[in-house]
Amino acid sequence: MSATAEAHPELGPYAGFRPQLKPGVETHRHTYRGRPWYVFHDRAAHRFFRVSVSGAAILSAMDGKRTLLEICEMLESDADERRAAATFIGQLAGIGLLRHEHLPDAAAMSTRRAQERKRTLLQQIKSPLFFRIPLFDPTRMVDAALPWLRWVFGPVGIAIFLAVLVLGGVNGLMHWNEL
Asked: What angle do CA 83, 87, 92 make, to 5 degrees?
């Protein structure tokens, strides 16, 4: 264990880590329910992440030159805030928003992609709106049937509909006790 990690155990393995956002991540400030939030858009993966103001302060200080410990000292954070910062950095690394000093591990990237596909598929299967019924364009069928069925949508069709409606109402009133 390094001297930095021993002096600040709340940061764990991230104490000497020099975090930096990967290129292609855009930042947008939004207000939700009266509170400011920062939305990070990863253009490469087309994913969005919402971060609070305190998280955005950490992200704005991540330039790849300062260690996480230096960032926490600069923001004058206590032990609980440092622990939260380490967790936050771990989450950012887990979702792939951080740039690494070494080349990306292709096996880890493909494993993460497979896990993401599996998670997305399970979410879709669990959703009641997932099942899709293939539809067709009925325009040709309606156009072909319209000459024979045009009377249904005219005065004759309305008269037949009203007659059936009145007969049903009369029949219902006649058998009211049985209903």
From this structure: 145
Supply the pTM of this predicted model: 0.49
Cα 150 to Cα 147: distance, rounded to the nearest angstrom: 6
User: Are 70 and 56 spatial neighbours (Cβ–Cβ below 8 Å)?
Assistant: no
Cα 51 from Cα 60, distance rounded (Å): 12
Residue-wise over 2-22: b if at least 16 C-beta within 10 A, else e?
eeebeebebbbebbebbbbbe
Backbone φ and ψ of 78, nearest 5°? -90, -175
Q: Tell me the per-residue pLDDT of 47-84, one tens digit each, with 9 for 90 and over.
A: 888 888 888 887 777 777 887 778 777 777 777 777 77
Residue whose C-alpha is closest to residue 69's, from 77, 47, 166: 77
Q: Quick one: which of 112, 99, 77 has its CA closest to 23?
A: 99
Residue type, position 171, single letter = N
